[in-house]
Amino acid sequence: MRLCAWYLYGEKHRGYALNPVANFHLQNGSVLWRINWLADTSPRGIAASCGMMVNYRYFLEETASNSAAYLGTKQIKASEQVLSLVSQFQQNSKL
């Protein structure tokens, strides 16, 4: 889960999220909200994402400012759960 959080939050292409689905939702003003372990245990889900799924949450009053921040300064808005996983990854990573 820590690696997944880092992939979605920290891995970038030209400053934007490397994952195309993440990039789509973040451009539209969502918050990287929650990573769910074993949410998709189908053979395809296991093969594609080790069974993990992510939730993006849209707070209507914040979508415009989140989108502007992402597009302008490449800042990703994320929940405490995701930020905690990212922090744990950074502390334990040898990258």
TrEMBL record:
**One Pfam family it belongs to:** MCD
Listed GO CC annotations: mitochondrial matrix; peroxisomal matrix
Where is each Malonyl-CoA decarboxylase C-terminal domain found? Answer: 1-58
| GO BP terms in the entry | acetyl-CoA biosynthetic process; fatty acid biosynthetic process; malonyl-CoA catabolic process
- Gene Ontology MF annotations: malonyl-CoA decarboxylase activity
Q: What is this protein called?
A: DCMC protein
Q: Give the species.
A: Caloenas nicobarica
